[in-house]
Amino acid sequence: MLIINEERLLERIHTLGAVGLDAGGHRTRLAASDEDKAGRDLVSRWMSEAGLTVVTDYIGNLFGIWTPENCADAAPLMLGSHIDTVINAGQFDGCYGVLVALEVVETLKASGFVPARPIAIGAFTNEEGVRYAPDMMGSLVYAGGYPLEKALASVGTDGTVLGEELRRIGYAGTVEPGFLKPCAFVELHIEQGPILDTEGISIGAVENLQGISWQRVTIEGEQNHAGTTPTAYRVDAGLAAAKAITFLRRRCELPDSRTVATTGCIAFEPNAINVIPSRAVFTVDVRNSDAQQLCAEEQALADYLAELERTDRVKITAERLSRFDPVLFDEGIVQLIERSATARGLSCRRMTSGAGQDAQMLARICPTAMIFVPSIRGISHNPLELTRDADLAAGANVFLDVVAQLAAKE
Ligand code: GLV
Ligand code: MN
Ligand code: MN
Fold first, then answer.
1. How far is CA 266 from CA 116, 159, 321, in A?
2. Cβ atoms within 10 A of the Cβ of 168, count?
3. DSSP state string for 346-362
4. Is the CB of 35 under 6 A from ligand 1?
5. How far is the CA of 225 from the centre of ligand 3 (A)?
6. Is any atom of ligand 1 closer than 6 Å to the C-beta of 128?
7. Ligand 3 centroid from CA 382, angstroms
8. How far is C-alpha 72 from the geometric centre of its chain's CA atoms?
9. What digits encode the pLDDT tens for the residues 262-284?
10. In this predicted model, what pLDDT tens digit does every residue of 121-140 receive, in sequence order?
């Protein structure tokens, strides 16, 4: 059986992982930042060295394309993920998928494999959505789900405009997103959750992905003195925010609830120890793999915020930042993943992706599925994110087999 070059793969993961590390060991490569540029430069050099044609589209998605002469006109098989990161990130999220895709194409080329279609590897812009919303932006625009102009006009958390930043770092692109019409898309990713590690299973055949709802909630209260204002006189925006956050958690703890909810950002004004907050602004990330239940959670929060306006005399507005329905992946590719894992003697189980993924967007335009490998203790979006080398290599070899079979099909 053909195998990937594990040493080359690990070396590239660690080299890319060192890009954006500060003196304190914090790794941050936000979309279209200087650090992202350095990561892109590295990946695009590796793509060129592998003999791929390197192309960037107008939303900054970076592609390395292998177009063998015998099948130049066939619809390409597309692989890939992202290389942008969250703040203080691990080194595997996204990067593993992009670098294994490159490794697999190099392995196939070197083996004399003759594909029946081109293979394109994508590193999609702003998957994380930390600097610019919505998340999965590059793949969403690529799949025609969000207007290019609107995406380029997105204003970041630091006041920058994405289109200007892409131009500044030299990745404003030369072709329309969607320029290649893939016959299928496959993404390899670390699980980022604890299931595979806990159950001692090597491979996840990802059959679906939960829906994601992002909102920004603003609560207006009345700024007043922390010492002199009796409790009954207070209109406390901070307290109302705390109640809303606690409400979300209580919903998640209801029996049989499969909802997860997070408030990852919060800011008070004027943000002083002895002043009752006049304003609280916080984010809400709610996820559920059932479309109706996700709607029910959004409605429950809206009802609770309306109740808080009455009980706490605050004014509340909620703004939608992004929203994606749950996605079902392609059953044929999921079965191919299961067969490929079994053929390598690896344990495998079907699973749901809890994280948002570029595959979620590509699924709009072609048959799509994902492969997961274990994350130790399920830690991710954290520098401690870790997958054992043997698991990284096993996932890459399963991916190799899946890619070879999909690319060999007329
Ligand atoms: C992406 O990492 C997400 O699921 O938020
Ligand atoms: Mn990711
Ligand atoms: Mn991520």
1. 51, 17, 15
2. 15
3. --EEEEEE-S--HHHHH
4. no
5. 41
6. yes
7. 10
8. 31
9. 999 999 999 999 999 999 999 99
10. 999 999 999 999 999 999 99
